[in-house]
Amino acid sequence: MTTYYYVAASQKFLLEEEPFEEVIEERIRNYKERNQEIDFWFIKQPAFLEAPEMADLKPKIPQPSAAVVTTNKQLATWLKLRLEYVLSGEFEAPSESIPEPLASLEIA
């Protein structure tokens, strides 16, 4: 299993109220400069929030939700500090309750 770290908030907050695109572009540029493989993903309506262990978290995030999921704990901490009004945490996957850590419930 792999430990995944996340920062989650409403889509409106991340996509309209915060300079989120700028923050992500900055990280991508930083990773490229360091020849580091991208280890974070932006997910609309993340399925992991439906897991029983997330039952206390889900009601705290206005819908529709979004999250950045990463395997890099330092990046998750940086995003939490940079974006401020997000919830953060971690989970192990794949597991019985979270078989696909990057899955989305959004219908195209």
Which terms would index this structure?
108 residues, Alpha-Beta Plaits, alpha+beta
Short description:
The chain has 108 residues and is α+β, with helices and mostly antiparallel strands. The chain is 30% helix and 25% strand.
In words, what does this structure look like?
The structure is a single chain. This protein has a four-stranded antiparallel β-sheet. The chain has three helices and four strands, in the order βααββαβ. The protein is globular. It has one domain (2-93): Uncharacterised protein family Ycf54 (Alpha-Beta Plaits), CATH 3.30.70.1860. With 108 residues, it is of the alpha+beta class.
Describe how the helices and strands are arranged:
Elements: E1 2-10, H1 11-17, H2 20-33, E2 40-44, E3 65-70, H3 73-83, E4 87-93
Antiparallel strand pairs: 1-3, 1-4, 2-3
CATH superfamily: Uncharacterised protein family Ycf54
Instruction: Assign an overall shape.
Output: globular
Taken as a percent bin, the fraction of beta residues is 25-35%
What's the SSE pattern? Answer: EHHEEHE
Counting helices, strands and paired strands, the structural category is alpha+beta
Mean of all residue-level pLDDT scores = 96
**Helical content class:** 25-40%
